[in-house]
Amino acid sequence: MRLRVEFTTEPFDLDEAPAHALVAREVIEAAELDAVDVGPFGNTAEGGSDRVLSAVGALLRKTLEAGATRVSLQVNVIDDGIGEGDR
């Protein structure tokens, strides 16, 4: 199964990326997910369910530890087939 995760971390700072936003980017980029799009107002990534769910767990732990006061996320199933990351 393939999943898409969309997330934001707060508080926002438009002048300089806060530490929790930088940590979020590092976590998602290190997770070897597909179609990663990291931006100031929202972030998305896709991949096999195991990789996405592991990345979400790490994302929550590490961004909260780095000072995020709120993490909003949505996870969607994008197909029912077996993805490459489901090993």
Structure, described:
With 87 residues, the protein is an alpha+beta fold. It has helices at 19-30, 49-65; strands spanning 2-10, 34-38, 43-48, 70-79. The protein is 33% helix and 34% strand. A four-stranded antiparallel β-sheet has the order 2-3-1-4, covered by helices on one side. The radius of gyration is 13 Å and the shape is globular. The model has no long low-confidence stretch (mean pLDDT 88).
**Element pattern in H and E:** EHEEHE
Residues in helices, as a percent range: 25-40%
As laid out across the biggest beta sheet, the strand order is 2-3-1-4
Largest sheet: 4 strands, antiparallel
Rg over alpha carbons: 13 Å
Poorly predicted runs of 5 or more residues: none
Structural class: alpha+beta
Q: What is the 3D shape?
A: globular
What is the total tally of β strands?
Answer: 4
Question: Average pLDDT, to the nearest integer?
Answer: 88
Q: What's the number of helices?
A: 2
The first-to-last residue Cα distance is: 11 Å
Strand content: 25-35%
